[in-house]
Ribonuclease T2 (Oncorhynchus mykiss), 243 residues
Amino acid sequence: MKSLALVVLLCLGCGLMSSSFVLASPHMWSKLILTQHWPSTFCSMEHCDPKFDYWTLHGLWPDKGQECNSSWHFNVTLIQDLLPDMQKWWPDLITPASSEFWQYEWQKHGTCAAKAESLNSQHKYFGKALELYHTLDLDGVMKKFNIVPSETYYTFDHIEGIILNFYSVKPKIQCIHPKGGKVQILGQIEICFNSDFQLANCEHSETDTLRLIDFLNVKGTEFSVCDHATPVYYPPLKGKPSM
């Protein structure tokens, strides 16, 4: 009997260890990062023609896990009803007629986000990203508080302060840093949500720069967290007068 009890206890212990391992999996996320980029800055690096004079979606990224299910292939027919919104608000800035960008975002980030029941299909994932994007209305908030594309430089603290005060959470703001260091160019803004889709503070980590080099579109692009002391250039759309 004692031997049998020992075996049972060992089995229970193994089960608990197995459960702990699953819970500790790097694919289990606790935060979503809604990332938007400024087309003029992006296209200045990637040599594309920016046709959008508003902040467009880059992606909805879980804070842990990448390419969680390589067998879960992207199928554009599953999001047909979302395509008009996708093309307008979440475009591939280099090849707007392509769905390759969305395919990549689904494979790399969507299959990880799908660990949550609320995001466990392509339609749920892309639909929720669009919903959060419209709810935030980052472009509208920036304009409301007179943060507009301009040849006049802004301070980083001014831009961050506007976003922080409006949403009551800390964003992560990224720039590119031309050689010389006299100015940095505003390029990308992250705003974070918890697993219940409530706003949450974004946190900086050592992997940020690696994560920002995301998708073929931004191969070689080096966004990094903006420097607090360096003036920020928010470039107008090419051919469009600054406001």
